[in-house]
């Protein structure tokens, strides 16, 4: 467990211990208020920590310190309340979002009327992060096993990595699921002295919101969710719909390039150029333009397009990137025999022996997706490839599912249909052409909570939604400030070009 003080950039952040709560967060005593201090990164924001139990079934056991940050309402006379925020991941820092991004993300009206409060979920950022051996992480085998032997090798690695992360992290590793985060968030509500909260969650942060509404619906004033997660999906539906979302974004890019003269690939068969590029990457013929001594794998190229350019979207830069790779001389000698297995960048840790790696600790405890052998995995992969032949499946979700192979079958927070009874109206926004979270996910969640949720589609592309247009921003602002929801059947039109 962490010591009694958390040191950030030389500034001691005070710790406040929350009153012990029952499973739904009912405390026997009133929680003490957090003793806020200026954040070391930005003194215009306030930081603190909240001490919470690692395992609520054993409240007298170990504790951890949840990091929180707040930007107070800039117009106290018009203050509505607190707005808790989570930017997704799993693994994104709510503290960093509140300190570094909230002022540019939210409109002046929201900043004037709400205390914007971000928190790092357990296992993430400054909240006792999940840590794993740097050396072991570097030895991850391919997430595309070709036979049972390679499947077994991947499962063995995942088991070894899980035990390594548990050893470096401690007991919190086994309690990093979203349902535990939801209970932590309600403890934060109590520590803030609020009877009801307002909540803004994006992407994986919507799962926190959805499950909070199940557990503590009567403690919500408003809840706005963008790029929604459907936590009722089985393995096949999850993989196939994720792949279909990535493939749809690729086709949106192709259509944009066909009609946009400034596109670096305009006038060419973009799909043919792309497929040929990936085939050349398979043969080791495409070099990293930033590191010419090594080659790029097809997986790295698709992941870059998906995460870096479809999310925005930033189709102009993607077209320039693809055109540049395609222009590389086909007969140049290879500089590296094998393209490396791509892994997204890992956050830096103070101890170089370990790195923060919360993703699988959260994901594999939230989803009961465990292919048992290569035959089952191959069937899932084939279905995924049929849904996304040009993107070769879902770059991120495929790796996520592969990372849970070999984990125990028991899951802390398994998938289920949402059952919300006490919550007020919840506003959902979702892009029709979201590259990561298929629009059907939002539609499914809306069907499961028909009497509680209002779904406002954004007809354009991209993963973020709130700041996409005046329509999307005003819909959220009006709802959070005035409790006004869009009329049934409303939709926000696509905004501008990309």
TrEMBL record:
GO molecular function: hydrolase activity
InterPro entries: AB_hydrolase_1 (IPR000073), AB_hydrolase_fold (IPR029058), Pept_S33_TAP-like_C (IPR013595), Serine_prot/Carboxylest_S33 (IPR051601)
Domain Peptidase S33 tripeptidyl aminopeptidase-like C-terminal, first and last residues per copy: 399-492
Pfam families assigned to the protein according to its UniProt record, in alphabetical order: Abhydrolase_1, Abhydrolase_4
UniProtKB keywords: Hydrolase, Signal
Membrane-spanning segments: none
Superkingdom of origin: Bacteria
Region of interest (Disordered), residue spans: 328-352
Domain AB hydrolase-1 as annotated: residue spans: 82-376
Signal sequence region: none
Family: Belongs to the peptidase S33 family.
Protein name: Alpha/beta fold hydrolase
Annotated organism of origin: Streptomyces cyaneochromogenes
